[in-house]
Amino acid sequence: MNWAERISPVVTSIPPSGIRRFFDIAAEMKGVISLGVGEPDFVTPWHIRESCVHGLHRGYTAYTSNYGLLELREEIARNIYNNYKVTYDPRREVLVTVGVSEALDLAVRALLSPGDQVLIPEPCYVSYKACVILAGGQPVPVPTALENEFRVTVEQLEKLVTPRTKALLIGYPNNPTGAIMPMQELAAIARFAKKHDLIVISDEIYADLTYQGSHTCFASLPDMRDRTILLNGFSKAYAMTGWRIGYALSNPDFIAAMNKIHQYTMLCAPITAQVAAVEALRHGKDKMEKMVAEYNGRRHLMLKGLRGMGLTCFEPKGAFYIFPSIRETGLTSVQFAEELLKTEKVAVVPGDAFGESGEGFVRCSYASSINNLTEALERIERFIKRLNE
Ligand code: PLP
Predict the structure, then answer these.
(1) Can you give the pTM of this predicted structure?
(2) Which fold has domain 46-284?
(3) Angle CA 15–20–25, to nearest 5
(4) Residue 203: CB within 6 Å of ligand 1?
């Protein structure tokens, strides 16, 4: 039987993740320094792991409510209120999910009808477009540029909005650029969303990893709470990628719609991770801030190192990525990443994996030790020097 012919054309139309491809190649090679994956190099703080172990000792091994443990939903709502002064009802407006990944998938599936358009500033996280397509929607990329610090403007959005536009999907601090949006500019986007009656999906998974200025929660902007689907999780700030735990906050009817899909497809997020997430929110701030301070030091190291070898490099303000321009080398981002991996064994992700406007850049994750980063910088410098010979 030819299984390839049986696969849904929607699935076939989606390219495999450009990040995973390089990760897989690098995993096969010896001596590679990987700046490829966006994953903290820290182990989840011990007190968080311990709370999970205690939970297991107490026999917490069953399903939870589809919405998630009420205790966790209460902590999430309290945390959002403490940070941003936005109020959510933990019983009806919070859904605990299997990572932000599931929350994103549920959000677009619950929102979109076939052909609905979603404006997505680019470069962007690789899953955004794929999830929209899988939900039957049509992603509409909004290119951003280094010259404008990778910020999206209302003028650009106005040019691309149509009667079919249903939502705007944003992610700040941004993966892969590390860009943030100042509050005034986000407020202008909020007015645009209101004017065109759009829903805003705001992926704020890197909110706690903001190094310059403070993070603006999109739902905290005037009139935006009831127009926003706010997504966040534990993977990045608490070094909990493998626990698979995230959440969505929104209008109760919409959360119920997301939960309708979730209850049939996922049932609930793992109880072990939910118990640990309660501990993370209650007592994890100090450890988290220490990790953030460490990332900040690495950010400075990478910026100085990459600029020092002559690459034009935007100073990232959040997340743990840096996105140097490699246009000057005359190579495409894929050629650059392939040659660098082959000759110097450093894995980076070609910028085009994050959309067309990512071409001419590569993404380096600095969620790696200072020693690794220093060695990687030396290798990249050697590579650039050879290109210039
Ligand atoms: N959103 C962004 C912007 C990400 O970079 C990632 C992971 O890299 C995710 C969502 C997925 O996060 P989670 O581990 O919570 O599913």
Answers:
(1) 0.96
(2) Aspartate Aminotransferase; domain 2 (3.40.640)
(3) 115
(4) yes
